[in-house]
């Protein structure tokens, strides 16, 4: 169609949603499919949070564009306690999922987008929709897929003075790896030197198996934007509630984002915002839920790593989230003998012939010739898993 905006030409629906539709179609045709495609939390929303949602079902009015003030206060308090740096309600924006907030930020702000490769599927297409330049900065498994500070510095030195946004997602979708204090400190020095805005996509922070998440905002408070929400740790992806925290130095950016929100989504569902107040208030019930969900994820992750390693696949051991980035390079000769030379063809054949739905590394910015797939290990009944843990008294 001639009228198509040139920025949307060539874009496909989001890879994760596509694989889910493909697997559901095959299931409807009677195939038995192991769904390791879509990264959706398998756990039920904590009971205290659904109770709060029910209690506020009658709330029907539009809420303020930046979010319900009490929620913004609660979120600020949560992060202040977590990171030990001062936070206030004014730092917080609430939106319909962190995906939309990241897009909103990309709309509001100038500059090149830097993303480590591999990275989550949506950052680059969002940038493309806005006609923004994207640079993939390669990372290596031997460094736990962490962006190296000296490499970031060398990249920025090529053209000093450019406006840049860097998105760091940890624990990472697709690798399950994260950053430690030392690597964040090193990156923060480079970010400060080049005036880079760092978007810390911490949507999986609370799933970190040992509960020891480190945040970039501690080392680079003036330039770090935290992005998170209810989708992963609270099992409420379909509720569509994301939060973003911006430092004072980025207040004009936050104001611009609020203007965009006021002209687009207005505000998000009122009952959900009230329920989110409960979710972001620390409580014994929520702590127990987090301990139990992390325990389930850690056990499944270790099981997957053990079993996949046995058949010659390689991966870095995840420290959080529910993904594995698996290399099939060691079995390449076998695959090539079957005519499989790319991560996309590997995934098509796994789905068609074995009924296993996984995503190709190429969807995450890796070269399609590298035989990587991302596996989401969440195709199980999280409710039953939690019950089993609770029955065994393991959640303490
Ligand atoms: N960031 C990462 C790394 C993700 O994996 C996802 C969801 O898959 C999101 C952001 C978006 O989450 P939501 O829009 O549900 O908050």
Describe the fold and architecture.
Residues 32-368 form the Aminotransferase class I/classII large domain. This protein is α/β, with parallel strands linked by helices and 396 residues long. It is 41% helix and 13% strand. The chain has two domains: 15-44 and 285-392, Alpha-Beta Complex (Aspartate Aminotransferase, domain 1); 47-281, 3-Layer(aba) Sandwich (Aspartate Aminotransferase, domain 2). It has helices at residues 15-28, 47-55, 69-83, 98-108, 123-129, 149-158, 181-194, 216-219, 251-263, 270-280, 284-310, 332-337, 343-354, 382-392, and strands at 34-35, 92-95, 112-117, 134-138, 164-169, 197-201, 224-229, 242-245, 323-327, 356-357, 359-360, 372-376. The strands form three sheets. It has a seven-stranded mixed beta sheet, with helices on both faces. It has a three-stranded antiparallel beta sheet with strand order 9-12-11. Strands 1-10 form a two-stranded parallel sheet. Strand 6 (197-201), helix 8 and strand 7 (224-229) form a beta-alpha-beta unit. The radius of gyration is 21 Å and the shape is globular. It binds pyridoxal-5'-phosphate. The site of pyridoxal-5'-phosphate has 13 residues, from helix 4.
